[in-house]
Fold this sequence. Notes:
Strand content: 15-25%
CATH class of the largest domain: Alpha Beta
Shape: elongated
CATH architecture of the largest domain: 2-Layer Sandwich
Largest sheet: 5 strands, antiparallel
Oligomer: single chain
CATH topology of the largest domain: Heat Shock Protein 90
Radius of gyration: 43 Å
Structural class: alpha+beta
Amino acid sequence: MLAGAAPAAIALIYFASQHLVPSGWAAFAIILSLIAGWLVARFATVPWRDRASLFETLAAALNQRRRPSFRAPAGRDPLSKAERGLLEAVNSILDEIQTLALQRSESEAILRSMTEAVVVTGPRREVLLLNGAARKMFGLAADANYKGHDFVELCRDPRLQEFAGRAAGAGDDVLPAAELQLQIPAPRVVEVNAAPVHQPSGAARVFVFHDITRLKSYETVRSDFIANLTHELRTPITALYGYAETLTKGVDDRDTEQRFLGIIARQSRRLARLLDDLVSLSDLEGGFTALKLEPLAPAQVLEETAELMSEQARGAGVKLEVHPDRDLPPVSADRDRLHQVMINLVDNALKYTPRAGNVRLSAHLAQPGSFGEPAGAPQAPGLVLTVADTGEGIPAHHIPRLTERFYRVDRARSRELGGTGLGLAIVKHIVQLHHGTLRIESRVREGATVSVWLPLESTAAGDTTHLN
């Protein structure tokens, strides 16, 4: 405004010099004084303009969350001191904002990486936060926004809702961990903890869910294994003890004595096989079995297996055939372990194939993706070794559990035939040790087919491979 008044002042001075002041020197003095006043007024506005620039710079820095480039004045006047204080306050606020943003980023990264499902609810059980594991556990959409939704919308299982209700009414108390068997959206066993979080709007709750379904499954398998092992050991030991005790008391009949001795010998061999299989399975599962890989001709592996099992096949009245494809490339495998796999498969096939039946051994190439190879398998053709029989077949609901330790479809007949119940478990681990895949297919009264896929390109490092 002062700068705009300068032309008017000059016009006024000119008018005065022409009409009011007769002396030219007096007019000149008046002009000089007015110019000096205008200059003082003009330069007095500069600090205020600088301060307006400061305020604009600080506002932009806060909006963009970056330190301002403005340099505070070094003067000692109150206004300069206030400017420096304001600049320091803005820098402090920006540092706090940056620290909070970093902490939030770290918290979000921790939540994303957690395998446990985390859900935070507000005072009215509305959802405030949930991580990716929670979305996966409750079958929620990965990109949907559930903030503000009622907790019941995440999972409508009554057991979980009952626990959430108790947590909401517990006040500041931390509820003990609860084990829940949820059925929605899928059957699973979870362990859930609930802890309070104080907020200005009221007490919130943090729910942490641990999926222990697999752990419970392992506990069941372990319990079954101990029970089955105890039973398997008790049978031969009881027979050995009973017949040995009878013989020590004396048996008058020579034929009876020989029969008892034969039973003791058979039970001893059965016990020895059981212990050998347990040691072998323990080494395989513990990763203590080293493979000595070498190139093996598939046709030769089948022929050697058939030769070793030919006597058992003749005794069972079963025809054993070998039909490998021609010109198969060699496969990198451990000779002894691969023979163990094939012998176990053929032994099972012979046991459960009636007389005049047929067991067929074959080998062929499988193109990538045609067999269900494990993840990370080389994208190249693999070798498939197959043992097919014309036996009784296996009901479909038994097939997924056949490789479990001591699992039997027909327990009585399996023990009668001398099986330990560990053969297929050993086969599975040897195949996995070779980075292969085991597949079992069967229909009742139509026989069974067991196939082993092995990579033609070795994925093992060096001469030894361990199963994790």
